[in-house]
């Protein structure tokens, strides 16, 4: 059996490559989804099959079967899974097509070699962080993550200063392209098959570690910069991780974690109102717009959050064991780092991790900073801080 997976672009004959047309004409059977069949049926007889039924229908065909897929076969395409399902039954060739990214950026007169590429089809998170740290973000939208809903999320997060371009039904007779602020576009209704390009002229530099001077302090305790950097390294935060900062205080650790989890989600859990106000100010000041403040005294309030990949506990208010247990119930493999100044807190952290079946790893961080004394510089010691880790 022979299969050819063909990128059919936006679903119009004009955007098919010459190679694609040739393969379509030579095939014994041509299959595609109902949406694409409507725009391509003028070429020859094409059988419309729902996407989930394409593999079974292709295996029932004889001879050479061409399968037309929207966009480009290498850009968030069903070609990836189809190829895996069909290759054990015969030869599979893959032909590229015009992607929505190429078509949309060409219509806007802009390049895409400097853009971050996302697909929001059935995916949670990612857009706010990507927009926070990049000048240009392209996203495929759909389902609950339609373009208007994503624009509303950008506006709610404080990113209304960015410029958004939305393309709907590209290549079709009812194609629509609009540009504006997130707030302006959130009031419009867009079809599922829409694409977005978000431009941010002043993104934060995610590669730059945050210093104490970057934050609004107030009277709320703040984890010192050297401790934040080490704690984030110990947590081994990945770009797409879901992260908790429990007892977030000013949000300084939340913001540092956010720069590591640029495509993920960061939840700053805090119960004091003055601290919550500082978190709101600091997320804007440092440009970490995907940090979400959660008003709660942990472990209360964690139930409604998605399962964490890692968690920093900077304050437990006497609930250390309960917090650790709640984290493990949400994810048995969660990575935990606890900070402590008092020896009593070190003991409770060790006991909570041991009771949960983890072997604690303990470090004592002692930092000194230089200060000018006349023409000399002298080192001034900071308070020692303990970092206790589990499942690292």
What do these coordinates show?
By secondary structure, this protein is α/β, with parallel strands linked by helices. It has three domains: 2-98, Cobalt-precorrin-4 Transmethylase, domain 1, CATH 3.40.1010.10; 101-199, Tetrapyrrole methylase, C-terminal domain (Methyltransferase, Cobalt-precorrin-4 Transmethylase, Domain 2, 2-Layer Sandwich); 212-390, Rossmann fold (3-Layer(aba) Sandwich), CATH 3.40.50. Helices cover 30% and strands 25% of the residues. Strands 13-12-11-14-15-19-16 form a seven-stranded mixed beta sheet, sandwiched between helices. The chain has a five-stranded parallel beta sheet with strand order 3-2-4-1-5, sandwiched between helices. Strands 6-7-10-8-9 form a five-stranded mixed beta sheet, sandwiched between helices. Strand 12, helix 11 and strand 13 (291-295) form a beta-alpha-beta unit. The longest helix has 13 residues, at 273-285. It is elongated, with a radius of gyration of 26 Å.
Mean pLDDT: 93
Q: How far is the first residue's CA from the last residue's CA?
A: 49 Å
DSSP strand tally: 19
**If helices are DSSP runs of H or I spanning 4 or more residues, what is the number of helices?**
13
| CATH level-3 fold name of the largest domain | Rossmann fold
Estimate the helix proportion, in percent.
25-40%
**Overall SS class:** alpha/beta
Total tally of structural domains: 3
Percent in strands: 25-35%
**Which residues form runs of ≥5 with pLDDT under 50?**
none
Evaluate the radius of gyration.
Answer: 26 Å
CATH class of the largest domain: Alpha Beta
CATH superfamily of the largest domain: Vaccinia Virus protein VP39
Main sheet summary: 7 strands, mixed
Arrangement of strands in the largest sheet: 13-12-11-14-15-19-16
CATH architecture of the largest domain, by name, is: 3-Layer(aba) Sandwich
